[in-house]
Amino acid sequence: MAILEPFALAIGFLLSYVYDFTLSYGFAIAILTVIINVIIFPLTLRQTRSTKRMQDAQSDIKKLQKQHKDNKEDLNKAMAAMYKEKGINPLGCILPLIIQMPIWFALFRVLREPLEFIPASSILFKDLEVSTSLTFFNMDLQIPPSEVAEWIDRVPYLILILFVILTALFQQQQITKKSGKSDNPQAQQMQMVGKVMPIFFGFISWTLPTGLVVYFLTGNIFRIGQQALIVKLDDREEVKKEEKKEENNEEPQSNPIQKNPRKNRKKRRRK
Question: What are the residue boundaries of the structural domains of the chain, listed by start?
Answer without folding.
Answer: 2-239
